[in-house]
Every structure is written in structure tokens, then in C-alpha cells.
């Protein structure tokens, strides 16, 4: 029984313990649940607070932006209103001006009508007076020089009435009909550049009254200034007021007595026009006797645009082949055979003859007529020794074929032959790729070229050509406007520009390049090759010559057309170059160019234009680059990379007005050089 009681007690205690433990566990669980609920409620409260804060911040920001936008809109509206008011005021001013101009125009028309009526009345009275006056025949004048007047003058001018006018012709007419006195007009330049034609054209365009007071004198070697003085006095006394004297430099005493024309006859009211091919004689006369009493008109330089207009051609290759003179212009350019026969630079013989007559004899004549002067005195030794012609030929050849003849007084070297050989080896077209020039004896080739041009080696000369001789000859050629220096710049601001001589007679240069081809044909190694290989080599050499010449033509004509605020030059780097840079000194910006003879677009043509290092160096010295251009013989194209292809012939025709406009500042897209 006692055992049973113990068992029961144990069971009851166990049950009670279990119940107690269950109660405690349930109480703890409820407590955790309550805590979790509290945490969740707290999190909801915090989330609601953050959302409300975010909404508040967003509304505040939107409000601020709205206020800002409204302010900006208000300012813009105010600006627009001011602009509208300004435009309205301007429009009112323009309307007022239009009304004023209209009133003045009516007034002028009335006065013009009145004047016309008065002039008509005066003409009638003049005719009546002339009819009443007895007719007086002008006495026949006896001249010592070759003077042409009256019907002979009219007949002489008839043949040029349909011919085109040189760009400089306007300067001649400005002088003829201006009120200035004490000045003479000088028309001078190389042979076949239109001097005599300009004189005849000026006479052909004269009124009957002016023509009756005009005389034309063709100077001769036997004429003297004393004879000319007596004839001019006779013409002045007879009422002549316009006198054209052609080839005036033939007179030996012209340079020393040139002031007679300005100080005497021009001062008395005569218009004296002097013309001739002896440019040095005119240059010396202007430096001495005429000084500032002469209006010079130089005809030597004939740019492509003028050549194209006068002769009706549109091919840059025709200009390269014949450019420099207008001799072939009398013929049709579509007949190449005829042109080749008549052109000044049709072959080496005609070119050498032109150099001898138009240049060498020119300077020799001036030296002979002005022995007492101090100009070009170092050339007298060459002149007296009979070496002057050879020296001038030598210097011209050195400038024309820098790539053929490297130095003037040392052995001749041909750098360009090696360049051509390299280009032929890597020619893209497999049919044109050849190594034939690798075996050519360049020394023998240049020796044959020297013989062809009759240029003596240093050891063959009785008198050596010194640097002073070279300087004086170049000074003369520059005065003749046969050469122009366009210095080569570098990216280094401290470096001095390098002399780069540009030649104004492309036909002369090309013809002498053909002499090189001729000498190559006589080379033993070259002669042993097939006709196809000969043609390939000769064609490639001449193609490179045309490419080099095209660069110089563009440089020269752009430089001639540029105003004082623009500089035009070639820019060289350690490796590579820009063929041309136009720098606007006022705006401190520039345009960069590559010039190619090709008619096709090839990425390699503009690789330098996109070279970041070269462009950075250029901008560091010459300001922002406003345009990148490739001038070539194809059509105008704008590439996505910012490079613009432009037809070189159209570019040259668009000259001379040159103006680089910062396109970005103007708010326009720049598609080509602003010309």
C-alpha cells in the first residue's frame, strides 16, 4: 500500500512538473511573440517615416526646380522681348532709310533727266559751232622714232578686241583715266605674258576722242632718250595726251634718263605707259630715276584661275605642262599636237631658248646699259667672262630640279631618283611595280642631263660661282617675279624657317623634267629594258614631278591670294609634313592640307592630318585646327572623320579671296575652306 502511495505520489509529481514546465514554456513563447510584434510595429513606423521624408524631400526639390525653370523662362522671354524690340527698331530704321533713299533716288532721277537734257542741248550747240568754224587740218608731224597715230593706231588695235583681259588690266585703265599726274605706268614681265596685248586692248577700248589724242611708239635699239624727248614734245604740242611706249628698255640710256617721262611729260598732264620685257631695267629705273613716280604692273605671274579663264581650259595638268606664258593661248587647247608645236615650253630646246632670250639676255642687256651702277656688280665678272648665261641656267635648274641637282657648285646628285625607285618597288598596282631604277646609274643620268642643258661643271668654269653670285641672281629672278620664297616652318617655335623656292613658270619646270626622262632613255641599262618597262619608269617619274609641282602651285597661289592676316607655309615634322598650312594670325587658328595629284581617295593620303601628335604640336604653335583638307583631282567629299576632300581645280579657281572663319564660333558646319 505504501508502495502504491509512493508511486502515485511520483506520478502526480511528474504530471505537476510537466504541467509547470509547459506553463513556463508557453509563457516564454508568448513573451517572444509579443517582442517580435513590437519590433515589426517599430519597423513599420520607421519605414512610414522614411517614406514621408522622401516624399517631402522630392516635393521640395521639384518645387525648387520649378522655381528655377520659371526664372529661366522669364529671363529668356525677357531676352526674346528685347530682341524683338531691337528688331522692330531696326526695321523702323530700315524703313525710314528706304523712304529716304527712295526720295533721294527720285531727286537724282530728276536731276539726271535735267542734266541729260542740258547735255543734249550743249551737243547741238557744239555741232552748230563746229559747222560754222572753218576746218583746220592737223599738220603732218615728222618723228624720229616709230610713232603710230590715227588710222594706223585703230588698225593695230582691231585684232585684240575679242581677246580676254588679264586680271591686272583694270590697273592699267585706272591709271589712264585717273586724275593723278607726275606718275608713269610701267607694264613689264617675261616674254609672252600679255604686255603688248594689254596695251593694244587699252587702245581698242578708248573713245574716239581719246583715240585721237593717243600715240603708240615701238622703241628700237637705235633710239635714244634725246630722240624720244623731241618726239614727245611734238606730240604734246599737237594735243596728244596718251602715249604708249613699247619695248622702251631697248634704249641704252633709258635707265639713266627714265625720270624724263615722269618729271616732264607726266607732270604736264600726259599719261605715259612704258612697257618691255627687260624687267631688270624697269626695276633699276624704279630704284633710281623713277623711284615713287611709277605705277608698276607686273605680268610674269599667271595663276591657274587666270590661265584657265583666258584659254578656256579646266585641266590642272595642261597648266603644269604649258603654264607660265600665253603663247599657246592663241590656239585651241583640245589639239595637243598643235599646242606642243607652238607652246613656249614644248621641249627642252624651246625651254632653253626661252631662258636664254627672256631671262639671260634680259639681265645681260641691263648690265650692259647700266655699267656705272652699283646693282648686281658682282655679276659683271661672270658677264665679262661669258659665264653669266651658264650661271643663270645653273641656278634656274637647281631651283626647278632640286630633287635632281642637289648643289650648285659640287657634283650633281639625284635624290628624287632614289625616291622614285623606292616608290616603284612598293607600287600598289602589281602591273606598275618594278625594280628597274635600282640598276640605273644616277651619276651618269645627271651627267647626261647637264650636257643636255649645256651647264658646265665647276672645274670647267673659268670663274667659279660664289654665294654672292647666287644671291644676286636670285635677287634678280625675284625682281622678275620668276621665283617666290615660301619658307618651310617647323613645329618647333625656336627653329628658323627653311628657304623654299616656288617657281611661277610651271611649263618651264615640267619641260626640264622631261629632259631627265630623255637622259634616262639614253642610259645603257635603261635602254636594254623592254618598251613597257621604259614607259612605266618614265611615266612614274613624270607623275611624281606633277605631284610635286601641284604642291608648289597650290602653295604659291594661296600665298599670293592671302591677305596680311594670313600666313601660308609648308609645315615639317621630324617625320612627315603638312603640305600646306593656312594660319590666321588675327583669330589664332589654322587649316591643314594635304595636296595630291591623284583623282582617287586613299586613307594613306590623310594619315598625317589625323596624326594626334602632329596635330597637338600644330595647335600648340598655331592655334586650334579649324579644318582638315585633301586637295586632289576628284570630286568634293566630306568624310565622317572630319577630313574634307576638295577638287584642286575648283579650289584654285575660288581664289583669291581668303578668309578662315572659326566655324564653331559661328555656329555653322564647316565643309570646306572659306574662300
Can you walk me through this structure?
The longest helix has 131 residues, at 2-132. The strands form 3 sheets. A 7-stranded mixed sheet has the order 8-10-11-12-13-15-14. It has a 6-stranded mixed sheet with strand order 1-3-4-5-2-6, sandwiched between helices. A two-stranded antiparallel ribbon has the order 7-9. The chain folds into 3 domains: 147-299, Rossmann fold; 306-482 and 504-548, no CATH class; 566-666, Trna Endonuclease, Chain: A, domain 1 (3-Layer(aba) Sandwich), CATH 3.40.1350. It has 24 helices and 15 strands. The radius of gyration is 43 Å and the shape is elongated. Helix content is 54%, strand content 11%. A hairpin with a 4-residue loop joins strand 14 and strand 15. The model is unreliable at 328-342, 403-416 and 658-675 (pLDDT under 50). It has 675 residues and is of the alpha/beta class.
Task: From the structure above, extract its key features.
Rossmann fold, Trna Endonuclease, Chain: A, domain 1, 3 domains, six-stranded mixed β-sheet, disordered C terminus
Summarize the structure.
The chain has helices spanning 2-132, 150-158, 169-176, 195-204, 208-211, 225-237, 254-257, 259-266, 279-287, 304-311, 316-322, 336-342, 348-369, 380-384, 388-400, 415-425, 442-453, 467-479, 506-521, 524-527, 531-561, 612-622, 648-654, 663-666, and strands at residues 147-148, 184-188, 214-218, 242-246, 271-276, 294-298, 483-485, 488-490, 501-503, 566-572, 577-584, 589-595, 625-632, 637-638, 643-647. It is α/β, with parallel strands linked by helices and 675 residues long.
